[in-house]
Design a protein that fits this description.
This protein is an alpha/beta fold. Strands 2-3-4-1-5 form a 5-stranded parallel β-sheet. α9 links the parallel β3 and β4. α2 crosses α3 and α3 packs antiparallel against α6. The longest helix is centred in the N-terminal third of the chain and has 27 residues.
Length: 249
């Protein structure tokens, strides 16, 4: 057997598995499989096709996540001069916390690499088959305003952001929220609670969140849903932009 007959290839394409058709032809044309039993060859072809399809799916998920740091990788985290716990970061990279819908808080000064690490975690989520999304809080509020001004309902907007396995919220509470924004954030956090994981990138310690959320019942409810379900990472004070700039020069 060399090339598949046209009819078989057509059927495989209609079944939306052209990768399997390619893999079967590759395996049967590979001299290394000349003395391998047909069922073992077929198994090898399926493995090849699965790898190709999985890689393509991961790339689609990463593209759709709109990561600000698309090349961020958990294996390239810099630990020197930072308070990061290597074992803790690598454990987060397994995405085990997502099985329990836990959140991650990345706290540190500006330039400490919060966005980079958050995007690295989102890439890991995509590699594990989760859909992820990166968004800056100012952009999220702007997108909501534009959505509502077009006559669409807030419920549908919330549903859109509630369905991601991981939602990275960058520049979390960079500006104190208005009562309306706090109410919206409560609805978002509530809908995602026990359904997905959030990654909060913030310059402010958790103790200051309540005030920046405007206080009151909605702030209480938001804090309660995050406080008992999150993993905190201290990003420290080292400015990684300066480090990167020095290395590049």
């Amino acid at each position: 057997m060399g090339a598949l007959d046209p009819e078989t290839r057509r059927k495989l394409r209609e079944m939306r598995v052209p990768e399997l058709a390619d893999a079967i032809e590759e395996v049967w044309a590979d001299p290394g499989f000349a003395n391998v039993a047909p069922m073992e060859r077929l198994s090898a072809a399926v493995d090849r096709a699965w790898d190709v399809m999985r890689s393509a799916n991961v790339e689609r998920l990463i593209t759709r996540a709109h990561l600000r740091e698309r090349q961020a990788d958990i294996g390239r985290v810099v630990y020197e001069g930072r308070p990061l716990d290597r074992d803790k970061v690598l454990e987060l990279g397994t995405c085990g916390f997502m099985e329990y819908h836990r959140d991650v808080i990345l706290e540190g000064f500006t330039g400490t690499g919060k966005t980079w690490l958050a995007c690295a975690l989102a890439r890991q989520a995509c590699r594990h088959g989760y859909n992820a999304m990166y968004v800056r809080m100012p952009d999220l509020f702007l997108a909501r305003e534009e959505w509502l001004s077009s006559g669409r309902s807030e419920s549908k907007f919330l549903r859109k952001y509630s369905n991601f396995g991981m939602l990275v919220l960058d520049e979390w509470l960079i500006d104190p929220l208005t009562p309306e924004q706090t109410r919206f954030v409560f609805e978002l956090v509530e809908r995602r609670y026990d359904r997905g994981s959030n990654v909060f990138c913030t310059q402010y310690p958790f103790a200051e969140w309540h005030q920046r959320l405007g206080g009151g019942a909605h702030a209480d409810a938001i804090m309660d849903r995050i406080a008992h379900n999150s993993i905190s990472i201290d990003m420290g004070t080292r400015n990684m932009r300066e480090v990167t700039s020095t290395v590049a020069s």
